[in-house]
Each structure stands twice: as structure tokens, then as C-alpha cells.
């Protein structure tokens, strides 16, 4: 189970490195930057979707699960990437999008030709529902995660098809054996090419209620994210039969030596429901993201409570996964740290020392922040719909900042990138040799994590602290975070400061207590 000791690094391929000067990041660009990842000290790179796609949802509408988008390269380029990563002891993890395809996928294109198509049952179709006034409408009340009804009428057949996201993303029907068999082949195709695992997009949603029953209203005490839809996803998500599908995927993954990893996007804010996806006998997901943690503020009490709920709920064979940023949410240097370097270092120290597998998002290591957008610059359909209240996901997907030169080291000077650059002030070149930089701190934290086995395997044990402070022990190591604007003292801490957000304190000997300034963190062993 290599992923238990690993640190994963998520790359949005269009935004990491452009090798051919077209303003779009690509696979050869990633290959050319592997030395940075090796130097940084991560263990695996997870690539957001690389497959052919019309980009209605920028890769999450897959038109061919066994190909590479021409903007990003070729299968041969992918093979080179895997070989070069392997030579640097880096693993490659891909995104799997099993809930839906693109409406341009060959399966759906055949399915809409006739109700007799062999691929018709690959998707969720239903007849209109006639209301009390005799008016025909969608089969039920389900709403899309992107807003509006989750059903679109196919005029030719008079039936509706389901799409829990965009109309261009029709949902697959996982009650159909053909779909299950096809995805067995998809997993094996990539595993046989050297892929070490998959991050599985909205894996809790793939199976829908067979009777297509209406969802109930959302409770008044529900999380704000759930209230956005106005209904609880009882029948279009987290169905009990989804666990059969995940166990089947796990069987495929475990058939390889070494076993392949399955990391699930389980967007369930009820921890007791989320942890069920590890299975009762370690036969489902290898790892599951905890989105409650990500939605918390950088607040000691909130974060501590979130971690301890997971620690108290996860099964003995389960292993947590922690992240502060990803391709769907505001970057943590903006959301948690408000651009402040000291807060960003505290967040990195937290992510890299909790029990579990950390997942960094490209740019986290330099404190890269969200980018401000004008409406005409937006490409994300969600942002285009809800701007200016919500700019969507583009602000956290902008190109990696390698330098402050023209093109930011991402592309050539004078080339317009597919998304605009944010601030170039925080960049790799400027921080690489700066002993006080966020990048240097992140690299040193990764090195200490590798050196101290307790940071990878020892249990999480909370320590008593005052308000605004969070501290825990991992075997012989102790982590102390003062996440407040006040000075603080934590008793019971003995040893040497091995890593500190205030770098000058490293090497300091502690005889029983540690004094901390505002938003200061330290690792003691």
C-alpha cells in the first residue's frame, strides 16, 4: 500500500507547462518539469483528465477513455511521461470519470440514434412525467449540480436523459452490465501502461435509484453546500448499490502487483457516510477525500474537531487523505491564508504532518493564490452562469508560475495562455534558493516527513492547548500550530525543533514548553 507513505501532487495538465508554445499545458511539458517534482520530494503526480474531450467541462466530459486529448499530446507522450517519472521514483495517477461521458462519446452518439441502439441502456433514459394538469415534464425533481433540471428532453425519441452536471455530460447507467464490463477494460488499459492508480470523480454518485424517485427537500440544518440545491441527494447519490461497483474496481486494482490505488472523490459532508466507502473489509477505496476538512476555516478548533471526527469514525483498515486545494475550490493560500506567507506555512505544516496521505495541488508549494477574473475571461461554465457572485473554478486553475519573466516560464514570451496568469510575484525561480520562502519550507517539510517514520505511520494523539492553538503528537514527534493573533504557550513539549515556520527557531531545545507567536508552527522531535 505505497500510498500510505506517499505525498501526491495534483496537476491540472492544461496549466502546468506548455512545451509547444500554444498557450496550453501538455504532457511533454509535464515531463520536462519532473525534475522539479523530484527535487520537491513528492511521490506521485495525479493528472486531472487527459482524455479527448470537447471541453464543455474542461476534460470532465470524456469522449474517449482510452485516448489523449490532442491539445495535451499523444499516447506515446504519455508513455514517455510514465517512463521518465518511473526513472525518478515518481508514480503517475490518472483521473477516472465514471459518472458520465461527453455527449460526443461514441456510446452516446449511437444511443441517441434509436431506442433500439445497443448503447441505449448505457445511459439513464426515462419517459416524461405527466403532472395533475396533464403537462409533460422531467421524470422527477432532480436538479443538476451545476444548476437547473438534471434532465434534458431528446426530441427524436420523446424521452429524457439524465445529466447530474451539464446537459453535455449524460449520466451512465451503472445498472447495465455493458458499462461495468467497459470500465473494467478501461482500468486495465491504463494499469497495463504503468498507471499506479486512479482518482475517481464523484464516485459516490455513479449508481442512481432504479425507480428514479423524487429527492426530498434539504433539511434546515444542512450544510450550506447541500442547501444550494434545495434538495437532499437521497436518490441520485450515495445509493447502497454503489459499493458493489467500487468493490469490483478494487478487485481489478488488487489484481496487479503492486496493487493500484483508488482515491475517491466522495463529496459527502456526513463523515459516517463518507467512511463507508473504505468498505467493511478493506475492499473498496484505498483513500477517500474529506471535504468537511477542506470547507473549514483556518481555525484551530474547527480543524481539530474535523480531524478528530474522522479519526474516530474511519475503520481500522482505513487511511485518511488530506488536501487544502484542488481544481474545484479556492486555493488554500487564498481561502485559508488570505495571501499571508506565515499562515500558508502553517497550513502546509498541518497537511504534511497529520496521519494520512497529503495531496498537494500544483502551486501550493509556492503559495500560489487564486486569480481574479473578468467575465469575458471565464471559461468555466459554472462561473459564466453565476458570475459575479461566483467566478467558478477558473481562479484556481490558472497557469503555474515558474518565473516572473514574460510567459511565467509556463509558455513563451508573448504567447497568450489558455487562462490568464495571476500574480507572478510568487514563483519557483524566486523561491528555490530563498531559505525563508514557502517553497523551501515545503521541500524541507517533505524531507522531514520522509526522515521521521512517525510522521508516516504513528497514530494521531491530540495535546491539551489553549484557545486558538492546535497540537498533536505522532509517536516521538509533536506538531504545534498557533492559529491565532495572540502569543501562546503549550506545555508538555520536550525535544528539539526540527522544522519551524519561523526558520530561525530550528535547532532550539525545549525543556517542557514551547512559546509561539501568532500564526506560528513547529515540529518537535
Walk me through what this model shows.
The structure is a single chain. The chain is α/β, with parallel strands linked by helices. It has three domains: 367 residues, Alpha-Beta Barrel (TIM Barrel), CATH 3.20.20.80; 57 residues, Oligo-1,6-glucosidase, domain 2 (Alpha-Beta Complex), CATH 3.90.400.10; 67 residues, Immunoglobulin-like (Sandwich). Helix content is 25%, strand content 16%. The protein is built from 16 helices and 19 strands. The strands form four sheets. An eight-stranded parallel beta sheet has the order 11-10-9-3-2-1-13-12. A six-stranded antiparallel beta sheet has the order 14-15-16-19-17-18. It has a three-stranded antiparallel beta sheet with strand order 4-8-7, with no helix packed on it. Strand 14 and strand 15 form a beta hairpin. It is globular, with a radius of gyration of 23 Å. The protein starts with 7 loop residues before the first strand and ends with a strand.
Given as residue ranges, the uncertain stretches (5+ residues, pLDDT < 50) are: none
What's the number of helices?
16
Q: Report the strand count.
A: 19
CA-based gyration radius: 23 Å
Q: Estimate nothing, just give the exact number of structural domains.
A: 3
| Helix/strand structural class | alpha/beta
Largest sheet: 8 strands, parallel
Question: What share of residues is helical?
Answer: 25-40%
Neighbour order of strands in the largest sheet? 11-10-9-3-2-1-13-12
CATH class of the largest domain: Alpha Beta
**CATH fold call of the largest domain:** TIM Barrel
Task: Tell me the CATH architecture of the largest domain.
Answer: Alpha-Beta Barrel
- Into which percentage range does the β-strand content fall? 15-25%
Shape: globular
Kindly report the oligomeric state of this protein. single chain
Amino acid at each position: 500500500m505505497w500510498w500510505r507513505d506517499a505525498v501526491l501532487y495534483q496537476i491540472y495538465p492544461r496549466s502546468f507547462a506548455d512545451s509547444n508554445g500554444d498557450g496550453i499545458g501538455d504532457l511533454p511539458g509535464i515531463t520536462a518539469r519532473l525534475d522539479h517534482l523530484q527535487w520537491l520530494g513528492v511521490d506521485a503526480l495525479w493528472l486531472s483528465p487527459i482524455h479527448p474531450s470537447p471541453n464543455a467541462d474542461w476534460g470532465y466530459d470524456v469522449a474517449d477513455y482510452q485516448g489523449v486529448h490532442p491539445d495535451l499530446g499523444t499516447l506515446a507522450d504519455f508513455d514517455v511521461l510514465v517512463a521518465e517519472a518511473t526513472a525518478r521514483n515518481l508514480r503517475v495517477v490518472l483521473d477516472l470519470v465514471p459518472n458520465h461521458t461527453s455527449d460526443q462519446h461514441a456510446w452516446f452518439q449511437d444511443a441517441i440514434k434509436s431506442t433500439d441502439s445497443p448503447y441505449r441502456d448505457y445511459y439513464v433514459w426515462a419517459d416524461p412525467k405527466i403532472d395533475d394538469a396533464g403537462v409533460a415534464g422531467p421524470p422527477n425533481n432532480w436538479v443538476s449540480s451545476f444548476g437547473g433540471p438534471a434532465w434534458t428532453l431528446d426530441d427524436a425519441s420523446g424521452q429524457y436523459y439524465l445529466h447530474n452536471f451539464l446537459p453535455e455530460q449524460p449520466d451512465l447507467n451503472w445498472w447495465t452490465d455493458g458499462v461495468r464490463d467497459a470500465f473494467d477494460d478501461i482500468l486495465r488499459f491504463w494499469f497495463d501502461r504503468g498507471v499506479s492508480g486512479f482518482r475517481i470523480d464523484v464516485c459516490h454518485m455513479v449508481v442512481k435509484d432504479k425507480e428514479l424517485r423524487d429527492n426530498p427537500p434539504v433539511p434546515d440544518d444542512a450544510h450550506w453546500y447541500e442547501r444550494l440545491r434545495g434538495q437532499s441527494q437521497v436518490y441520485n447519490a450515495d445509493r447502497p448499490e454503489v459499493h458493489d461497483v467500487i468493490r469490483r474496481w478494487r478487485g481489478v486494482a488488487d489484481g496487479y502487483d503492486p496493487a493500484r490505488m483508488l482515491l475517491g472523490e466522495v463529496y459527502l459532508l456526513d463523515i459516517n457516510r463518507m467512511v463507508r466507502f473504505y468498505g467493511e473489509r478493506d475492499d473498496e477505496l484505498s483513500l477517500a477525500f474529506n471535504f468537511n476538512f477542506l470547507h473549514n476555516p483556518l481555525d484551530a478548533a474547527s480543524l481539530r474537531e474535523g480531524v478528530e471526527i474522522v479519526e474516530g469514525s474511519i475503520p481500522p483498515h482505513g487511511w485518511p487523505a488530506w488536501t487544502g486545494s484542488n481544481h474545484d475550490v479556492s486555493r488554500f493560500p487564498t481561502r485559508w491564508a488570505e495571501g499571508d506567507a506565515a499562515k500558508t506555512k502553517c497550513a502546509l505544516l498541518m497537511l504534511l504532518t497529520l496521519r494520512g496521505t497529503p495531496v498537494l495541488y500544483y502551486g501550493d508549494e509556492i503559495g500560489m493564490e487564486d486569480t481574479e477574473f473578468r467575465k469575458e475571461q471565464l471559461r468555466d461554465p459554472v462561473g459564466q452562469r453565476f458570475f459575479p457572485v461566483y467566478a467558478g473554478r477558473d481562479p484556481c486553475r490558472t497557469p503555474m508560475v515558474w518565473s516572473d519573466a514574460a510567459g511565467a516560464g509556463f509558455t513563451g514570451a508573448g504567447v497568450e495562455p489558455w487562462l490568464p496568469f495571476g500574480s507572478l510575484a510568487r514563483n519557483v525561480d524566486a523561491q528555490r534558493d530563498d531559505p525563508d520562502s514557502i517553497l523551501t519550507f515545503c521541500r524541507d517539510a517533505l524531507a522531514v516527513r520522509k526522515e521521521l517514520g512517525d510522521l508516516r505511520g504513528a497514530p494521531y494523539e491530540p495535546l491539551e492547548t489553549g484557545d486558538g492553538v492546535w497540537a498533536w503528537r505522532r509517536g516521538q514527534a509533536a506538531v504545534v500550530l498557533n492559529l491565532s493573533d495572540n502569543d501562546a504557550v503549550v506545555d508538555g513539549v520536550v525535544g528539539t525543533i526540527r522544522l519551524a515556520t519561523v526558520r530561525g527557531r530550528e535547532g532550539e531545545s525545549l525543556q517542557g514548553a514551547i512559546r509561539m507567536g501568532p500564526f506560528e508552527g513547529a515540529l518537535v522531535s
